[in-house]
Write a structure and sequence with these properties.
PUA-like_sf, alpha+beta, Sulfate adenylyltransferase, about 25% strand, globular, 3 helices
Amino acid sequence: MENLPPKTCAIERLVTQPKLVAAVKAGAKTQQRRDGVYGWVGECFDLEGMAFIITDLSRQRLGDMTDEDARAEGFPGLAMYKDIILKMHTGMSWDDDHLVWVHSFAAKPEV
């Protein structure tokens, strides 16, 4: 991917909420959507002693999210994802045209 903006935040801040950290560690969460770039493809991060690697970074409209995307975020479906996100971010409204960065990741293979 070319012409990426500078990072908005350190990769260590990509996944911080305890329930979501647990979902990543269990393999139930493989994506994190953020307004900015937190990590580049190939960059690694650590969650409570487990290593993960960014496998893809892409742009997506919130309105293009699917139930499958919500499951990759660690939620059972899009309706619950939207509900939780709006509760976590007081005052936020869901704008289908809002662009986010989708950080995809996987457990880093041991060498």
